[in-house]
Design goal:
Blueprint lengths: L3 H17 E12 L2 H5 L2 E2 L1 E11 L2 E10 L2 E2 L2 H5 L10 E10 H8 L5 H11 L5 E7 L2 E6 L4 E9 L2 E6 L2 E4 L6 E9 L2 E10 L8
Antiparallel strand pairs: 1-3, 2-5, 3-4, 4-6, 6-13, 7-8, 8-9, 9-10, 10-11, 12-13
C-alpha cells in the first residue's frame, strides 16, 4: 500500500506515537490494509518496532507491537489536525527493559513510591540502592549495602517481587495485561497486550 494518503496517515501515527513518549530514539512503523479501506478510515493493522524510548516515566530498551484493525477519522487528517481514533483497539507484543534503564526509573520521582515500598518491605526499611536483573531473579541492594535476592513472578496478571513471605506488587496500568516474562542477566522482557482508547490518540 502506497500513495499520499498512506504517507499522511503514517506521518500522523508517527507524530501520535512520539507525542506519547518523552523520548524515542528509533521508530519503525508498517501499516497494513488496502488503499480503498484506508480512505474510509480502516486500517487492517499496524506493526511498530521502537528503541530507546521513555513512556509514562519508564525507560524502555526496545518494544515490538502489532495491532488488530484500527478505525480512524480521516477527515481531520486531511485538514491537518491530529490523529483521532473512532474506537479503541488492542495491541500485543513485547517490551524489553535493561538494568541500567530500570535503575534510572526507580530513582525518578515517577517511581519513587515503588522504590520506597521495595526498600521498606524487602530491605528492612533501608532505601533501595540498586535493582539487579539475573536469570534466577532480582538482586536488590540497599544504599547501606544490605542485599536481598527476590523472585520476579507473574501471578494472575500481577507482577510480583517476592522474598519469603514478603512481597511487593509492581503497579500496572489497568489497560495492560502481562502474559509472560523472561529474565536474563541485565534484561527483562514482558509479553502481553494493551488496550488503546480514543482519548489517548490526541497529543498533549
Amino acid at each position: 500500500m502506497s500513495g499520499p494518503a498512506l504517507g499522511l496517515v503514517s506521518q500522523a501515527i508517527r507524530l501520535w506515537l512520539r507525542s506519547l513518549c518523552s523520548r524515542l530514539d528509533h521508530l519503525d512503523l508498517q501499516l497494513e490494509g488496502s488503499m480503498l479501506r484506508l480512505m474510509s478510515g480502516h486500517l487492517q493493522g499496524a506493526r511498530v518496532q521502537a528503541d530507546g524510548l521513555v513512556f509514562q516515566g519508564l525507560a524502555i530498551d526496545a518494544v515490538q507491537l502489532c495491532s488488530e484493525p484500527i478505525s480512524i477519522d480521516v477527515t481531520p487528517l486531511l485538514q491537518g489536525k491530529p490523529l483521532q481514533l473512532r474506537q479503541r483497539f488492542t495491541v500485543q507484543g513485547w517490551v524489553r527493559f535493561n538494568e541500567e534503564g530500570l535503575n534510572r526509573c526507580l530513582q525518578s520521582p515517577a517511581l519513587q513510591g515503588l522504590a520506597s515500598e521495595i526498600g521498606e518491605t524487602l530491605l528492612n526499611g533501608e532505601p533501595l540502592g540498586h535493582f539487579g536483573l539475573q536469570s534466577t531473579g532480582v538482586e536488590l541492594a540497599s544504599q547501606q549495602g544490605r542485599q536481598c535476592h527476590c523472585q520476579l513472578l507473574l501471578e494472575h496478571g500481577a507482577l510480583l517481587l517476592r522474598h519469603g513471605v514478603q512481597q511487593v506488587e509492581v503497579p500496572m496500568d489497568p489497560a495492560i495485561t502481562i502474559e509472560q516474562l523472561e529474565l536474563s542477566s541485565g534484561q527483562l522482557r514482558l509479553y502481553g497486550r494493551s488496550l488503546v482508547s480514543p482519548a489517548e490518540a490526541a497529543p498533549g
